[in-house]
Every structure is written in C-alpha cells, then in structure tokens.
Amino acid sequence: MVKSSYFYGYVPDVGEKKQDSMAKPKAKAQKNTGAVRIIAGRWRGRKLLVSDSQGLRPSPARLRETLFNWLSPYLAGSHCWDLFAGSGALGIEAYSRGAASVQLVEKNQATAQILAQQITLLGAEGLHIQQGDAQQWLAKQPQAVDIIFLDPPFGQNLLAPVCQSIAEQNLIKPGGWIYTETPSHEPEPNGFYPGNWQLHREKQAGQVRAQLLRVD
Predict the structure, then answer these.
(1) Is the CB of residue 184 less than 8 Å from the CB of residue 164?
(2) For residue 49, what pLDDT is reported?
(3) CA–CA separation, 26 and 16 (whole Å)
C-alpha cells in the first residue's frame, strides 16, 4: 500500500507489479468507455475520460447537478475528500466550483492512473489522487475536512465501515457534509449513519439513491 499523507498526489505502489506507464496511450490502463462532462465552474464543459474498470459507475449527471445545487453555498474554500473516486466526477466538479482542495482516493490502479492524467491536463494544484483502499487511507489521516463524497461500488458492503471510521476518527468537521449514493432497491442506509449525521436532502434517479447528510 502506498503511504500517503494529507493531500499527497498520486504515487504508484512500489510493491505492486510494474504496469505500463500513462505515457503509453495504447496500454490497457488507458482504455476508456466514454467520458463524463464537468457541469459548471472553471472547467465547465470539459470532458473527463472514464476508465473501463469493472464496476465503475459514474454518478448520473442529473444527480451531480442536484447535489451541487444543494452544496453551492458551502463549496467555496472547502476541503473535500472523494473516497471512491472512480471517474473523479464528484471531486473534480467540487474543485471546479471553488473548493480549496480535493483529495481523490481510488483503489483500482488503472483507474487511478487515468485520474492522475486528467489532473495533470487540468493543471489543478489543489486536486490530488491517491491510489489505495479508502478504509486504510482514512486510518492515516490526521485532520477533518468539510465535505466527504461516498459513492462506493454497489453490492460490496463498503459504505457502512467507511462511515464508521469517519465518525470514530472525527474526520468530518461539525457543520460539514456527507454525500452518499446507494442502490435504490435496497433499504435506506440510515441505520448505520451516526446519530449526529442528519439527513438534509434526498433524491432518487433510476437505480440510485442520493443522500446529503449534515453533521452536527
């Protein structure tokens, strides 16, 4: 696992088997199935490449637009984490709209490489990517942030333990925000949210349930 500290950029894991570098456009890590578009802010209209990694599910555009309308009064100058970054659409959108810094965390190495390439192309100094497991990464973080995006792969029971770690380690500031996406056909995840995380807004789009929680 790559050792990381607060807001480090992407560093390949030296313990893993060496793969083709980002500089080789024909490498497997560079495959993509399309793109997602940044909706608003400094990079409005820019497209982000989407990895072909199995299980990758970018947040639907209409949900992202709704989410950032909800968060609009709180984004400027905020510090954010996007812990299951995937396409990077949530974290990069937040930075485009005025967040002071955004840390992306992505477990899949090929997907993290594509995110690192996107960040380089954007020239974003306050936007960083760490390849690694979100749960393990959280254990090493020394300070809390303002906004955390949690959009894990569905069907892998990843959301509950990450929420527990955030709460136990006090990694979200009082008055901060937690955004989650879960399958709409499953029971609402309210049962494992800490008592001081209060549901503020909720929306369903197709098979996805989006919830924005306020931390007291």
Answers:
(1) no
(2) 83
(3) 21
